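Human: Here is a favour to ask of a fellow structure person. Comparing notes only helps if you start from a blank page. Give me a protein, with the fold worked out from its sequence. Please set it down just below, with no commentary around it:

Assistant:
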Amino acid sequence: MWSSDMLRRGALLLMAAGFLAACQVRPVYAPAGSAAAGGNPAVVTELASIAITAQTERIGQALMNELIFQLRGGGALVEPKYRLDLILTARVSDLAIRAREDIPVAKLVSLTATYTLTEIATRRVVTSDNVYTTSSFDVGSQRYANVRAQQDAEDRAARAAAADIRLRLASALIGKG
């Protein structure tokens, strides 16, 4: 009896130790990628020094704003070392069509972003690539709801593209240094 009680306590102790080993204590509001959140401080500083060229289209501005937030965590631009040029192509296509009525019931937003990261001091291209994302939305009978649904789908595609670009830029800057 004594040995089964000790065995049970030992098993509980091992399970508690396993759960605690998986815990990580980090500040809740630490910027993503910062040293406090477990990121590489040098890469965080390099990402924060990327100036993004201005965009005129709505979806381009959504991508630019999301990139600013993901690269700087909402902070101000430090002395820019790099320039990020973006070329966007967005397309909306029919995804599903209602039978016998030939009316689209779902559409797909396709976003292709071509980016080039250039070092400002030397004008050397650090990295250049394409990112392709899609997002779908339902089409109904209300015009404004359709416009809003398309804008939401474009925003989702821009968010996904920004996350992909940030990851690729961080990889390029880690490989550079």
